[in-house]
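Question (not urgent): is this output format expected?
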Amino acid sequence: MLTPASTANRTASAADTTLVKAPARAFRWRRIMEAGRYATINELAAAEKINSSYVPRLLRLTLLAVDLVEAILDGRQAEGITLPGLMEPFPVEWEWQRAIK
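Got this back:
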């Protein structure tokens, strides 16, 4: 596995772990769903032992612009970006997402 070059300059405390875990979990769930391991969001939620309404809200994070996800993972996200804020509906167009900051 290759890591982005930008991670070399990152300090251990730079990234908000709660914020980092959310897109990581969302992308993992998406891979699981795409692989056909679970047929429905309800099945996935039951397997993960979480509320079924939480899964689709988190899965939306897989629609974030790649550069925004990288910024979150590197701890370089805009100051106003929080997990509760990301859980709110956002535009799927990447240009509009970048404008919201």
